[in-house]
Amino acid sequence: MKGPMKVYYDEEGDFLEISVGKPSKCYASEVKPGVFLRIDEKSEEVKSVGILSFKKRSKDLQDIKLDIPVEVNFSTLASS
């Protein structure tokens, strides 16, 4: 996952999505009940993570563990 990170939360639907990079054509894969990864159709790169019923799960966030390949460039973050 490379590029700018965006966080979207829909309070009415209680849905959190964290995406990275420019939008692209993706497919979704449910990795745990209510936890979805959006994966780029061409590159197979993970583009976003979506969590249904986020507020209900937030008390148990330590139980939500995903191994997501994320690359963070801290020097870029520091210069922003």
Please provide a written account of the structure:
By secondary structure, the protein is mainly beta. Helices cover 14% and strands 40% of the residues. Strands 1-2-5-4-3 form a 5-stranded antiparallel beta sheet, with no helix packed on it. The chain starts with a strand and ends with a helix. 9% of the residues are buried. The mean pLDDT is 80.
Chain-wise SSE layout:
Blueprint: E1 5-10, E2 15-20, E3 26-32, E4 35-40, E5 46-52, H1 54-58, H2 74-79
Antiparallel strand pairs: 1-2, 2-5, 3-4, 4-5
Task: List unreliable stretches of 5+ residues.
Answer: none
Helical segment tally?
2
Q: What is the count of distinct domains?
A: 1
Mean pLDDT over the full residue set? 80
What brief labels describe this structure?
mainly beta; five-stranded antiparallel beta sheet
Give a short summary of the structure.
By secondary structure, the protein is mainly beta.
